[in-house]
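cron nightly-structures :: item 1 of 1
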Amino acid sequence: MFDRAVADTANHLLAQADWARGRLKPHAGKRVRLVAPPFAVQFAIDADGLLVAADTQAHPDAILSLTSAVLPFWLIDRPAAWREARVEGDAELASAVGFVASNLRWDFEEDLSRVFGDVLAHRIGETLRAARRWQRATAQAAAASVAEYLTEERGILPTRLRIEDFLHQVDELRDAVERLDKRLDRIAARLASRAHH
C-alpha cells in the first residue's frame, strides 16, 4: 500500500518531466529498493519510465540507502543527500534513479491551475517563490551577522585579511626555505670538491 502511494506520487511528478522519464526508460524492467529508515519501498521501472510497486520479496537490481542522519537534509539539499546514499547492485541504475530523485521538481503551478485557474495559480506561485527568496535572504543575512560577530567582535574566527596575510607569510617562509636549501646544496658541493683536492 505504502509502495503504491510512493509510486503514484512519483509518477505524478514524472508525468510532468519528459527528461526524467527518458533517464529511467533504459532501465525498464529493473527493480530498485529505496531504504530510508524507518521506511523501505521497492519499485520497478516500466517501459514508459514510470514506477510500479514491486514485490518486496523479489531481489532488487539496485539498493539505495539513506541514513537517518542524512534524511533531514533531503528536504533542504536533495543532491547533497543523494551523494551520501549507499549504493548496492547496478551502479548505472542507481545513478539514474539518484539523478532523477535529486532534480525532479513539482510543478505546483500546473496542479494549482487545475483547481484555481491559471491567473490565480501564477499569483500563488509568485507569492510562494517570494517567500522562499525572503527565507533564503534572511538565512544568508543571519549567517553573515554571526560570521561578522565571531570574526570582528569575539575574534574567535580569523578575518579574511588575517587568512590572506597568513597565507602570504607561509609563501614567504616556503621561498626562504627553498633559498636556504639551495645555499646548503652549494656549500655541500664546495666542501665535497675541497675534500677531493
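cron nightly-structures :: done
Strands lie at 31-36, 39-45, 51-53, 62-65, 86-89.
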